[in-house]
Amino acid sequence: MPKQKRLSIAEAKALAIEWEADWERHCFESAVDDHFRDASGSQLVSMWESRTNEKGQALTNFEFQALCSAWLQVFGCLPPDSDAADASTAEMLATPQEPQPADDTMVSPTEAARMAGVSLSTIKRMVLDDRFPKPMRLSPRRIGWPAREVKAWLRQLDDQRHARRQ
Known about the structure:
The chain is mainly alpha-helical. The chain is built from seven helices and three strands. It has helices at 9-35, 41-50, 61-75, 87-93, 109-116, 120-128, 147-163, and strands at residues 106-107, 136-139, 142-146. It starts with 8 loop residues before the first helix and ends with a helix.
């Protein structure tokens, strides 16, 4: 029988904390993905133009994220830029940027989702729909992407967005 590896208490605590953080992130991302799931395309456009929710109230930061996620699911791209963005929208978009990983590093699904600005479940859906690069198997239980592939995908998306305006 092969020798079993043992974890120290500190290693087990660190894993438990990591798993709990992943679970909380998953729950939040699921809530974002589900919030406007039943909205039609025209309802999403109306909410985007008015910057209000289905009740006519100003979008909260959570609802703004949910609207972007629903837009991506329905239209297959990010919502359009607004040249006449109001102060509240600019404030929502002005989140601090985390540093991008080096091109030669491998990024986890969670990091790829963060870089793309979408939820983990959206990344999984886009991989299945061939709208996002296929991951590499790093070990029997881990997958990841070279950071350069995620960055290239983002550049391609941005190029497509600008090409439509010309």
